[in-house]
Amino acid sequence: MRFPATGVTGAWQGGPMRTFELTDGVVLLRAPGAADVDRIAALCQDPAIQEWTTVPSPYARADAESYVTGMVADGWANGTQLNWAVRDAAGGTLVGMVGLGMEGAGSAELGYWLAPEARGRGVMARAVDLVLDAAFGRLELARVFWRAFVGNGPSRAVAERAGFRVEGELRLGGVQRGVRRDEWVGSLLATDDRPRRVGERPAAGAAAREG
Ligand SMILES: CC(C)(COP(=O)(O)OP(=O)(O)OC[C@H]1O[C@@H](n2cnc3c(N)ncnc32)[C@H](O)[C@@H]1OP(=O)(O)O)[C@@H](O)C(=O)NCCC(=O)NCCS
């Protein structure tokens, strides 16, 4: 394994998880907490996040609160969803979210969003790279899959740059706030080649700390 011992022995089989952090020295991934509620609520006002994700719309502060204290906390506690806030490693500012929805039997869904001001610099590429390192490293998953509503080019570009193979389009295959939309699907297997960006990924694997 590329990560220090964590109490997880062998492939993760489901069940409670202790939070862990991931960093490459530029971005820091740490589960969001109560102190992040206002920032998440502010960022989720972004029209693109509301257009392309399944966050509530309109988005209220209470939505951010229940996300952090409910979905995020329960997700880690039950091992069903592992969500991290994407932060600037230097200042700690929260600039986005990335997560794995654990499907069971070695498969998980990758999801993400970024603050508008953090886009266009490869921040999500770094965050996704760290999450995939964990997925195929310490979690020993066999497969990570990605879905996006058809037309979400920036999301598809992030997935394809990370090595995902877009496998097709599911007509009305996705649901957004009760309404069906066409979606793209893609996957990356543990056995697939992942593109390496020279100088960007620490050769010995990213540092990981227990939370
Ligand atoms: C999807 C989303 C996270 C992508 O953000 P992004 O800024 O394009 O992604 P990255 O941080 O990886 O940056 C990639 C951009 O930085 C550029 N870049 C610069 N340095 C880079 C590097 N080292 N590595 C990768 N890209 C780099 C890329 O060329 C790309 O810019 P371009 O789109 O002009 O070609 C963002 O558009 C978003 O939050 N959208 C709304 C929510 C959403 O759609 N979520 C996904 C739902 S499925």
Automatic annotation (TrEMBL):
All copies of domain N-acetyltransferase, residue ranges: 27-191
GO cellular component, one term: cytoplasm
Source domain of life: Bacteria
A molecular function (GO) term: protein N-terminal-serine acetyltransferase activity
InterPro entries: Acyl_CoA_acyltransferase, GNAT_dom, Ribosomal_N-acetyltransferase
PANTHER family found in the cross-reference section: ACETYLTRANSFERASE, RIBOSOMAL-PROTEIN-SERINE ACETYLTRANSFERASE
Protein name: Acetyltransferase
